[in-house]
Specification:
Number of strands: 9
Largest sheet: 3 strands, antiparallel
Structural class: alpha+beta
Distance between the termini: 48 Å
Shape: flat
Strand order of the largest sheet: 1-2-3
Radius of gyration: 27 Å
Length: 250
């Protein structure tokens, strides 16, 4: 065939049946032996998308993102040393936690706010995501003479909740709160009611305190104990529906 002859002339060294191989671009090196990486490689090193990398680069004056060395590439060492803003914030939150004192000492809300690095109770309460976690784990609750609730927590409880927020001391270090780590489980009786620990395992979270607000709101049973602690239960079918929705949103 004429077409076949033309193809052979265009590719004299390749058999018609031999597949074309696409080689991935390897990091280049400068005269000093330092490896250089492009956008795709740099994004992969940081675990982010290329668009996220571009945004960080455009905001480098405020976030400290390294400059390019030749207009298109960065030194690999500079990228490896860069800390993402979200990781900086998470580390700062962890470092701000006051871990001094008796772990079993019961402390009031004002002290809890100080332990977590807030200047006032107002910053802790309201729409702060850590406040619902504290309400679920109150260690002591009583009424004041005026009828107001007086809540107290053990210092160790506050530290554990702080760790669930920052990832410190847990297997999900470096990841944001409410990110599944394990493997979802769809086995069992769909109508069986399970507690927070089992719900976390079914959904792939490694601790009940990592369950996001959306999951908490969808509990099939929600009762409050004598100390104000919520006791939630979910049907396995409800948890599976949450899994299905999460997969559809990906």
């Amino acid at each position: 065939m004429i077409t076949t002859s033309i193809e052979r002339l265009a590719h004299p060294l390749r058999s018609p049946r031999q597949p074309i191989r696409h080689h991935r671009r390897m990091p280049t090196r400068d005269a000093h032996g330092s490896a250089h990486v492009g956008r795709t490689q740099a994004a992969a090193m940081l675990g982010i998308s290329v668009s996220h990398l571009d945004r960080l680069y455009s905001e480098r004056a405020t976030n400290g993102f390294p400059d390019r060395v030749n207009g298109t590439e960065w030194r690999a060492d500079d990228i490896a040393a860069f800390q993402l803003p979200r990781d900086k914030a998470r580390r700062a939150a962890s470092d701000a936690v006051d871990r001094t004192g008796d772990p079993d000492e019961l402390v009031p809300t004002a002290t809890v706010a100080r332990i977590l690095g807030y200047r006032s109770v107002d910053s802790l309460q309201g729409r702060n995501r850590i406040w619902p976690l504290l309400l679920e784990r109150v260690d002591d609750e009583s009424l004041t003479p005026t009828g107001r609730k007086r809540r107290r927590w053990k210092r160790r409880t506050v530290w554990e909740i702080a760790d669930s927020r920052t990832g410190k001391g847990a297997s999900h270090t470096g990841r944001p709160r409410a990110t599944p780590q394990g493997h979802p489980d769809r086995s069992g009786d769909p109508d069986e009611l399970v507690g927070a620990a089992e719900a976390a395992r079914v959904l792939g979270y490694n601790h009940p305190t990592a369950l996001p607000d959306e999951v908490l709101r969808r509990a099939d049973e929600d009762t409050a104990g004598p100390k104000g602690r919520h006791r939630r239960k979910w049907k396995r079918a409800t948890l599976w529906a949450i899994l299905d929705r999460a997969q559809q949103q990906r």
